[in-house]
Amino acid sequence: MTTERERLDADIAALDGLPLFVAYNANVDGIVRVDDDLEAFLERPSEPGDRLPPDPLDSRRNLAAAIAHTMAAGRGDEIAMTGAFAAALEAELSPDAQQMGGQTGIMTNLVSSLGAAPIAYTYLLSERQVSLFDRPDRVQYPLVEGGTVRLVPLAEAVNTDRTKINWVFEFRTGDELFGVRATDDSRFIAASRPPEFDLSAGALDAAVDQVGARVDGALLAGYHNLTPAHVDGDYAGRLRHARDVIRGLRAGGDVDVHVEYAVTHDDDLRASIYEWILPEADVIGADTHELSLLADDAGLDVVPARPTEETPFNPDEILAHYQILSALRAELGVDCIRLHVMEYHLAVMESYHPPDAVRRGLEFAAINAATKAARGDITAPADLETGLTYDPSAKGREAVERLADHVGASTEGGQLATPTVVACPNRVVEDPAGTVGIGDIVSASSFAIETAVANDRDGDR
Q1: Which of 228, 272, 302, 447 has an alpha carbon within 20 to 30 A of 1's alpha carbon?
Q2: Backbone angles phi, psi at 422, to 5 degrees
Q3: Which biological process annotations from GO are given for this protein (predicted)?
């Protein structure tokens, strides 16, 4: 029987040189721990923990309200800032640490560190941003000259002195801010929205089929970065353009497209993403908060609340997740929707890759998630040995078995793999080094393996 280490080695080998397109949002994350110093910097909101402030954030008081609400809810959240407030934070607040941020930046760093060969595009590429790529030698950037795409090293593609900065406020269970106690380990993101982030990539949009001809898959994200300032009227025109770019990418070849969903509290933007972008995906990645927003937009029943100390994990929640994912997949007409939660990973699909390819992806994602949580970063394939030291979650296995009973299937090694549903226990790190980007790590690693296996890069294992 193949050992876990042998399976991991096979997965890493399958990723060697895998060509992927990754776009659109990369930034620098300023990491700030929620503590007494932060409380002293902020201003006390009138009702801490009770409700979200208006979007966009424009003051220290509103920022405090947003962080406190997220702590009380026990799940990650994100709200945009006004340009003026973003500039004020950059001038007045010192981060505890800085790291690569943005879904595109995080996913590019991961796949390049694991040996893949990404072509990455983002709007603002400063020298400061380039310095945060772990393996810039493995990443190429698409420049267009005379209608022809030329791939260049990142250092040759620097196009600005400005850097997009997001602020990530991390907290652990029991941390307090203005009397509000965190019910789980998570984070709140105060996001900047530079005017360049309008989902128009200039000459690249018309030539994107040339990128499609060079890659096997695409990891796309950042659609939630749009603001009313980016559009003339409503969002539909801009997102129709973004839809046409996805179609152009596919015109160049047989390209699988993964869209990584992200939280936005702009109802009109969410509705437009739902209408114009999500149906174009082969696979959509989401967490439970994002799934609850999708379900609300689709008029489905509310997703169960995330477990906290007060509401412990219930294995039956996987049944509700399965039902909602199934309804969403059918409504959107996509091949697959993948959900990552603390205790398990779940994919609901139709006419997607073979179940074993998806199972391999979810199994590999669990190792990557544990590695990221334990180490804080993944910079080389050898780092994944850390993830193997964490056992698959017993609670997650129980949930997967509950789902298997529900669909009339059997599990093998605690995993479920049928033509329409695949589930795998996660590997849980009780005291994570950080929580930012784990969902992006899960989505990128699982999609990369699915794509590699579907292209038979390593044969059967």
Answers
A1: 447
A2: -130, 135
A3: glycolytic process
- Give the chain's domains with CATH numbers: 4-27+102-160+195-282+352-390+427-454 (3.40.1190.20)
User: 3-state SS of 255-316?
Assistant: CEEEEECCCCCCHHHHHHHHHHCHHHCCEEEECHHHHHHHHHHHCCCCCCCCCCCCCCCCCC
Three-state secondary-structure class, residue 331:
helix
